[in-house]
Amino acid sequence: MKYHATVASMAQEWSDSIASREVIQHRPNFWMDPRALNPNNGAGEVIAVRWDRDAAQLVEWWKGSPGHDALLRDPRFNVMGIGITYTDGNWQTTPNRYTLWGVVNFFGYTTLPAGTTTRPGGTVTPPTDPVGVCEPGGKYQPPTVNLSAAAIRSAADLVSISPDGTVYSYPSLGDAKYGAVRKIGIGFTGLKELFVSDWDRDGVFDLIAQHLDGALLVYPGRQSGGFGSPGVLGQGWESLNIAVGTWCANNRLPQIVAMDASGGLWFYKNSGMTYIRTQAAIGTGNKAVRLSMVDYNADGFQDLLAVEPNGYLRLYRGSGLAIPKQEARPVVGAAWTDYTGLRSLQGVTGANTTGIAGLGTNGVLEYWDLTSGGLTTPVSVGGGWSGFKLAQ
Question: How far apart are CA 56 and CA 151, in angstroms?
Fold first, then answer.
């Protein structure tokens, strides 16, 4: 059993709360608090009160209670945080007034979170609150814009790039069917990847181009059709596999999560149509050849799907924070190097549905509905896509 100052701050806050209200009450859904650091192997909470201020006897009371003692001894738990609160009052003259309150939170992690120490008072500085890097610079309400004349009309539309750099859009008709192709751009050559995203949150879909020379450009979509002159988001991006989406649950602006050549995960905050100047390390993983962001398990948080060189499709579950859930990363598919592109889509088979499209090396485009929380049997969208690149 080890100690974590962030978990301790959570336990202390709750101890202070119940002491100030003079109620003996467990915190609802305490394991989902950001300070719980995404436990993946169980969670427990014990509470006790005393009329005197003898903390040692408070612990003895826990040990003497079979239910509480079972939590103290649960082998799944490897990190704890402690909160103790003293309140005013004289238990000798007011015997019904508790003067000592205690809360302990226990969590189990496959991988110990950063900042874990062997005991309180260690020299390791607790990690920065992971919510911090996600904080939005402003409030962006979901805009409602008439996109009937725009190049990309919905989050269910498909976008592809031909070998000569021409960009085409395929409007969604519902039920995984698509209408007649439309040419929406030219000159998109030398690309590593192309992404569809409402980057500036104005209600119109934009294109983000990752060039083989390292340039990262954003082409603002126009409501009347086409795209404006590109803005430069960065340089030196050629070696990164990136995914674009609303990774942070409290920030409506899209963000970028990237994986470097060694498997390190990085978070890049959206600062509008200007150069991205901040990054944060958010984890490590296996080397991948492609990264895609989608709500794979239908829990409301975006996840990462990484295609590894051996063809494995590995899932990095998102937590709604900058840091993914700290757990073993399950393999959810095989032979995914047979797909040259993946695209997260919304509303393909109905309102509020989520899925992912994959373009195979055979030129066939398939779609997997993820609304049930996992990969289903793919639906063939169509063939004849050989030589084309699917925008993500």
Answer: 69
DSSP string across 30-44: GGGSGGG---SS-EE
Token pair for 271: 């600062």
Type of residue numbered 39: P
Number of H helices, E strands in the chain: 3, 26
Torsion angles phi and psi, residue 11, rounded to 5: -65, -40
Burial class of residue 222, CB neighbours in 10 A (0-12, 13-18, 19+): middle
Q: List the chain pLDDT tens, one digit each, 392 residues.
A: 898 888 988 898 899 888 888 888 999 989 998 889 999 999 999 998 888 778 888 889 889 999 899 999 999 999 999 998 888 755 455 555 678 889 999 999 998 888 788 877 544 343 344 446 787 777 666 677 899 999 999 999 999 999 999 999 999 998 888 999 999 999 999 999 999 999 999 999 999 999 999 999 999 999 999 999 999 999 999 999 999 999 988 888 999 999 998 888 999 999 889 998 888 888 888 899 999 999 998 888 899 999 999 999 999 999 888 888 878 889 999 999 999 999 999 888 887 789 999 999 999 999 999 988 888 899 999 888 899 999 99
Q: Which of 344, 295, 280 is nearest to 135 (CA)?
A: 280
Structure tokens at 203: 């209600």
Nearest to 49 by CA among 10, 86, 80: 86
Q: Indicate the SS3 state at residue 119.
A: coil
Report which DSSP code applies to 14: H
Q: Which residue do the tokens 């901040």 mark?
A: 278
Q: Flag whether the pTM goes above 0.90.
A: no
For the beta sheet containing 206-211, the strands, ordered from the edge strand earlier in sequence to the opposite edge, are 191-197, 206-211, 216-219, 231-234
Nearest Cα to 198, choosing from 263, 125, 147, 249? Answer: 147
State how beta strands 79-86 and 100-107 pair: antiparallel
Asked if 315 and 309 count as a contact pair (C-beta separation under 8 A), the reply is no
